[in-house]
Protein 1
Amino acid sequence: MNYLSTRAAASSLERKRFCEILLEGLAPDGGLYLPESYPQVSDATLSQWRQVYHQQGYAALAFEILSLYIDDIPAEDLRAICAKTYTAEVFGTGEIVPLRHVDEGLWIEALSNGPTLAFKDMAMQLLGNLFEYELARRGEELNILGATSGDTGSAAEYAMRGKKGVRVFMTSPHGRMSPFQQAQMFSLQDANIYNIAVDGVFDDCQDIVKAVSNDLEFKRKYKIGTVNSINWARLLAQVVYYFAGYIQATETNLQKVSFAVPSGNFGNVCAGHVARMMGLPIEKLVVATNENDVLDEFFRTGVYRVRGSADTFETSSPSMDISKASNFERFVFDLLGRDGTRVKALFGQALNTEGRFDLSADPLFVQAAARYGFVSGKSTHADRLATIRSTFEQHGFMIDTHTADALKVALEKRTPDTPMIVLETALPIKFAATIVEALGREPERPARFEGIEALPKRVQLMAADVAPIKALIARECGY
Ligand SMILES: *Cc1c(COP(=O)(O)O)cnc(C)c1O
């Protein structure tokens, strides 16, 4: 399997293998990597995968899917990496992504029983093992530098802790994460994990990361990398749970299902798009946004308009508070018939100069819902509270704020004959304040997180300045 950039001209012959793009971020032309084509899953293969999932489990299913896209890691090594990643010990249950039946034709797929209680663990845990494997093979090291306001940073740290050849330098705005999130990250005592509380806001953290990455000499010398959501390996790992959800909700391949996905950077639902392109019988992909409705606006109107920071709201589903959806370019590439020149004009030029582009008059956009199954909707703080409350009253369990956004839109979009699977992306304990607001009581806390706020913390406070961070990286690398 070869990979190309979403901004590559049709005449370009530039192609890469999986392990080449694994440690890279954007393609050199600013585009995102995608496979040259989507492997097609026949009815017979899907039936065989049912058996694999039911008899051998999630890790074996992951191997079947990943091996279609990764042909530069020997099969037995890849199988071992999957087996080491998707264990009941790490993900809390043998099914890894169990379905919870909510109502007639309505399910919630649990994706957040990993180490940080958010779905990002599903991909990040695999990435940690792939990185360790590939760095050892090359005899290289990597210094991951990131900025986080919560979920991504902790998922990255829990995936990379103790991994050989990798250090993580994670900046976060001092005092702005919830006590639970701070405790999750700062209690890690692993020598290769560096928590840096920056005296500033999240944008200051991001600016520092950008400044370091733009210093090309420093970046090369200290092998600076990232683990952001545009990484193809992360997206690929997420394709697996669409298959696992489908297999659990159906008995035959003649049945279709729909998925509702709480969306921010469009990584999660883009994995659903890939699964559908491979032939998984998905009827609809329901994109649910919060008040930051860039994506809902696009699917309703054909206009993609990125927001400035003044128009980006801080909401009670904070992991979806985005001003632009960094993975969206992948879908647009497929939508426009894989015309990289046009994608480059839209994302490389129009967005930079006008902050928007408009596909409303394009017949390809008009066919988007029918051809690709996308529909969308939006959920607000009041909707979130109401959905958390009604779910608890009617069904007796708590859902987190992001999952509530998806469930709200799922209920609007579902049809009687197609089962709907709502992807649960975090556990309620991570967003306790809103749960208390909705239900007047604290969310349940998994036993292994009892008392984590009292654990010793390993974090260093730094000024919002590039120089001390560079100095820290250089000192720890020792070269
Ligand atoms: C990251 C995240 C999302 C958004 O996922 P995208 O892949 O960015 O669309 C939704 N919910 C939670 C809890 C998250 O951490």
Note: The longest strand covers residues 166-173.
Protein 2
Amino acid sequence: MIAAVLPTYNRSKLNFERGEGVRVFTPEGDAYLDFGAGVAVTSCGHSHPHLVAALTEQAQKIWHTSNIYQMPGQEKLAFRLIEKTFADTVFFTNSGAEALECSIKMARKYHAVIGQPERFRIITFEGAFHGRTLATIAAGGQAKYLEGFGPKVEGFDQVPFGDHDALKAAIGPETAGILIEPIQGEGGVRPVPPQCLRGLRELCDANGILLLLDEVQCGIGRTGKLFAHEWAGITPDIMAIAKGIGGGFPLGACLATENAAQGMTAGTHGSTFGGNPLATAVGNAVLDVVLADGFLDNVLQRSLNLKQKLAQLKDSYPAVIEDIRGQGLMMGIKCRVPNTEFQTAALDHKLLTIAAGDNVVRLLPPLVVTDSDIAEAVSKLEMTCRALQAQKAVA
Ligand SMILES: *Cc1c(COP(=O)(O)O)cnc(C)c1O
């Protein structure tokens, strides 16, 4: 008999009933150190008092009105995002995939309204992940997500990650833009080098096409800057965000320049829930935390500590760890054992991690993680490695 909840997830047996900061608790009271943060979502940690207050305060006023009315909280969040980024305008969504859908539609519409509707194709990269809607699985181009879902949505051309010649060759008279994650998340925590992001910006400018960034996972402070592309000193034309901006409340956004957004006039796009008063109250509270003086610097300092400790772990357990990669508090352990085994072994030591492609285990702690949390996580990772190494020796 089919499960009551459509069985599309490989769920663990664990159930968490409460969370506090970097820890989550089972109904039996077992504490787990959460270095997955619900896949980079609980940016401020669990039950952050400021987020709880913002949510409950808004819940007592009004939850939902509809985008057919003025939304002061939404407007405030838009102004704050604009002030801190390249963007001139923001569209709010409930998820990352919807933020990408808006980004893709906007890129196509841009070319349509400037008189070149033939430019509708978007170039993406192998290993990319942009969501699970029909268009975003086409953008991601992964066979395992496309299989059985009918004809792939037209208009996406994929090139190998890091292959400059293939990229240049893929740009044609129908190309509307290039879409890339500054750090591939699901693909295995693969950062795009800053000079490559700069190269992409130049390539887009030279060809009159748009640069679209997917910062759904790497944005909102995860790398120690508000957005990962800031490290490269470039700006996109369009950017999708989600995950961390809601801190656990479903919220995403598509940010854009005025130029790129020029086709998105009244009636061209919409969302019933997108950016409703509850969601944007939380989004504003997340920004209060992340933009507070010293917060991002703290993320950077903690991440350097984590990176150094992971490098030591790799040196100590070369039979288990092949490589450490990533940036900021978005780190990947490339395993020499199956990553799911590593993840399960870490779970035995009550550490939550997230598996990714390329046999990588992701560490994505809440951005409020402390050095003592990191020391605890590394000690759990060390026990994990020791157990896996012993298993390997026996086998
Ligand atoms: C999670 C993710 C998405 C999809 O977000 P959903 O909220 O699951 O729709 C898109 N892009 C990247 C880079 C992501 O990590």
Note: The longest helix spans residues 371-394.
